[in-house]
Amino acid sequence: ATPSEEKDLVIIGGGVAGYVAAIKAGQEGLKVACIEKRGALGGTCLNVGCIPSKSLLNNSQIYHQTLHDTKNRGIEVGEVKLNLKQMMKAKDTSVAGLTKGIEYLFKKNNVEYIKGAGRFEDENTVAVELNDGGETTLRGKNIIISTGSEATPFPGLEIDEKRVITSNGAIALEEVPKRMVVIGGGIIGLEMASVWSRLGSEVTVVEFLSQIGGPGMDSDISKQSQKILAKQGIKFMLNTKVNSGDASGDNIKIEVEAAKGGKGQTLDCDVVLVAIGRRPYTKGLGLDKVGLETDDKGRLVIDSEYRTKIPHIRAIGDCTFGPMLAHKGEEEGVAAIEFITKNYGHVNYGAIPAVMYTHPEVAWVGQNEAELKEAGVKYRVGTFPFSANSRAKTNLDTDGMVKFLADAETDRILGVHIIGPNAGEMIAEATLAIEYGASSEDIGRTSHAHPTLAEAFKEAAMATYSKAIHV
Ligand code: FAD
Ligand code: NAI
């Protein structure tokens, strides 16, 4: 091993949380190195998560729309053919461009990029097994762990990423499966079900709970989403649990039964997607060498300044508490560096938006109705349907609604839930409103350009404290 190099900060894991922290540290003048083992920066999000899935969602939607939704718009198309190889290539091009972009940003901000797997030697020393062979060690005054997460496996179903797949396989299938079963109707399950169903697969989503969308999605919105996705051809089995699976034959067999118990049923398919959640990834880090522990869910335990019990070792992103979202990790990346350099940092965990990129999109921020009821908060509801919005009507894309939840007494916005075209962009306005402590009346009295989808947002706000104009 070469002699240890002294750094102000060593970051283990170059995903969104880690690379943002690295860039911010470079900008603040810290001597920083970021260790990443996958051979590319950007982590799960850029390489096998957010970015490739959104590329496939976008292009499969264009394909689907070209097949089914052009005639009434006055567009006559000839034969429409899927070129899956090219669709995957387009995805790979987007991914490569973005991951290379981060390498450029590292150089620009004096971040040293070390390609290899890091593990603790002691509280200040990280040994790196280099991807190109050999080893090196780094010494850090500060260390940030940002090693991310991995798909939670399903007991008894061995993942081969060809027929028994996680999202890693689902973004890289070489042909459209005839029949696909998706275990878990959370965001990964629904986004991937959308992609493959649009491309021609018969998709069945099996969900243990009584509603789809995973934790956080408002029940009204979840029901609408399910109805619309079912109309697009996705089959749903709710209140149903998968007990086991057998992929030994050509025909994969998935055994399901009612969540409360009862008569079992066998589902046959060609590909099964396991999408039952993700778990923190800290394998091979040598946590035991420094006496760091994880909780019962595998998360690194930290305080409000991201410090583990060894104060100069911090943890951010998917490997610790909070929603497993890229933008949450980014916020933590910046805040952790500010704690190191300035002794303060801030992330508002009450204002982190969530988006499901199906068509239409679903997006929300703040609390949902069930959460408010449980907390005993008195609230008012205001809704507005996209079917009454002029832009949605001109776009012939009118499914969905905006739903505001505001405090009954103060009118302060507590949550916004949207299903509809471009919901993922629109939620930014709601997030800003919550961050600034706005009331629904603040939004209702703010001019929104006409004709835009955002007018539905304004009118839902109006409906919360008064009445909407256009319904
Ligand atoms: P990761 O991105 O997982 O990065 C951790 C990195 O650390 C990895 O690259 C890993 O190789 C590296 N590493 C681990 N151990 C070591 C070690 N010992 N030495 C060196 N390197 C190591 N979130 C959104 O907000 N929006 C989306 O649209 C979205 N879509 C998603 C779609 C899919 C299919 C999936 C799976 C996830 C999606 N997510 C999305 C979630 C998002 O990808 C994660 O929240 C985000 O990547 C977490 O960032 P992170 O930096 O904490 O971890
Ligand atoms: P999830 O936790 O959102 O959903 C998993 C679903 O599987 C739950 O609804 C659960 O009830 C169900 N389930 C669990 N065991 C089951 C069983 N045996 N049978 C039937 N159903 C079962 O997890 P998911 O979808 O895997 O996503 C993981 C994380 O990745 C999310 O929490 C999210 O943070 C992130 N992500 C974010 C995206 C975005 O922001 N657009 C996109 C994709 C992932």
UniProtKB/TrEMBL annotation:
Q: What one GO molecular function would you report for this record?
A: flavin adenine dinucleotide binding
Whether Flavoprotein counts among this entry's keywords is: yes
EC number(s) stated in the UniProt entry for this protein = 1.8.1.4
Q: Does the keyword Chloroplast apply?
A: no
Q: What's the record's note on cofactor binding?
A: Binds 1 FAD per subunit.
**Which residues does the entry assign to the active site, renumbered to this chain?**
H450 (proton acceptor)
Pinpoint the Pyridine nucleotide-disulphide oxidoreductase dimerisation domain residues: 352-461
Name the coenzymes or cofactors required: FAD
PROSITE patterns, alphabetically?
A: PYRIDINE_REDOX_1 (PS00076)
What cellular component terms from Gene Ontology apply here? Answer: mitochondrial matrix; oxoglutarate dehydrogenase complex; pyruvate dehydrogenase complex
Biological process according to GO: 2-oxoglutarate metabolic process; cellular respiration
Binding positions for FAD? K54, G118, T147, G148, S149, D318, M324, L325, A326, H327
Gene3D superfamilies in alphabetical order: 3.30.390.30, FAD/NAD(P)-binding domain (3.50.50.60)
Give the residues the record marks as binding NAD(+): G184, G185, G186, I187, I188, G189, L190, E191, E207, G277
Disulphide bonds annotated for this chain are: C45-C50
Q: Which InterPro entries match?
A: Class-I_Pyr_Nuc-Dis_Oxidored (IPR050151), FAD/NAD-bd_sf (IPR036188), FAD/NAD-binding_dom (IPR023753), FAD/NAD-linked_Rdtase_dimer_sf (IPR016156), Lipoamide_DH (IPR006258), Pyr_nuc-diS_OxRdtase (IPR001100), Pyr_nucl-diS_OxRdtase_dimer (IPR004099), Pyr_OxRdtase_I_AS (IPR012999)
Can you name this protein? Dihydrolipoyl dehydrogenase
Organism for this UniProt entry: Neohortaea acidophila
